Amino acid sequence: MNVKVNWMEQVLGSEWEISPAGGATGEAYYAEYNGQKLFLKRNSSPFLAVLSAEGIVPKLVWTKRLENGDVITAQHWIDGSELKSKEMGGENVAELLHKIHHSKELLDMLKRLGKQPLTPSSILQDIKQAVEFHGLNQMEIKQAIEYLEMKLPSIQCEEYVVCHCDINHNNWLITETKQLYLIDWDGAMIADPAIDIGILLYWYIEESQWENWLCAYGLSLDGEILNRMYWYVLAQGITSILWHHAKENEQELINWINHIREMLQKMSAS
Predict the structure, then answer these.
(1) Closest CA to 18 of 8, 1, 5, 31
(2) Which of 65, 158, 166, 179 could form a disulfide with 175 if both were Cys (CB 3.0 to 4.6 A apart)?
(3) What CATH number has the domain spanning 82-269?
């Protein structure tokens, strides 16, 4: 009996129909029996309970600890769909992200779990070390790091919040009743909200609509938020280059270098 079936049967019994739910960890499954549907995951963070209570992820049904110490969580299986790229500009996305960024309960829980704030200086230090380690010497990467260093003193945030840090449209689920959820919180950090906002605006929303989206979120479009957004988007671009370099994804590596070049050109022209 494999490990998956073993812990599944400990929790549910053999009558449940179980199938993998995908994901990077391979620890998530769908289970169905007699009309009941659950999403199961092994060793989810305790953060999940707070996310559920806040209505940010599908409702947590139960949590069980196995004899070996593993913790299994079960959530309602949502019959919904991922947001399409064009739907990321909706007010519902802005409003949910605002709720997340302004939740004291989420912030308190991450602090109790020992999360330390992700600062711009620590991000830049990690990037520089990784670039040196991998021996990347493309001109665009050098220019991007120089820009990040130059702008670092001005990238100040008054209030660090809970950031999802991977707000790809695939992580947003909407139900038939228009209930919106943001899932996959394994990479959550305490950080500048511009990390989430910048990636979302830059990749999904036309710049002419940024002001409207930020208004729905609760911010005014000004030079300060623009600088912070661009800084984090550029940093994320270098991180993506490093990831694809490690995976030997040559075409994606080239694509991201081109993205970095376009961003630098845009910044120099502004």
Answers:
(1) 31
(2) 179
(3) 3.90.1200.10
- Cβ pair 97, 167 in contact under 8 A: yes
Residues of the chain with CATH 3.30.200.20: 3-77
Counting DSSP H helices and E strands in the chain, the numbers are 10, 10
Name the β-bridge partners of 106: none
Over residues 193-215, the pLDDT tens digits come to 999 999 999 999 999 999 999 99
Q: What is the pTM of this model?
A: 0.90
| Residue 74 DSSP SS3 | strand
Cα torsion angle, 40, 43, 44, 46, sign: positive
Burial class (CB in 10 A: 0-12, 13-18, 19+), 130: middle
Please tell me the total number of residues recorded for the chain in this structure: 270
- For residue range 253-263, what is the model confidence (pLDDT) as tens digits? 999 999 999 99
Does pLDDT of 137 surpass 90?
Answer: yes
pLDDT at 26 over 90: no
Fold type of domain 3-77: Phosphorylase Kinase; domain 1 (3.30.200)
Tell me which residues are annotated as active site: 166
Measured distance CA(110)–CA(203) in Å, rounded? 27
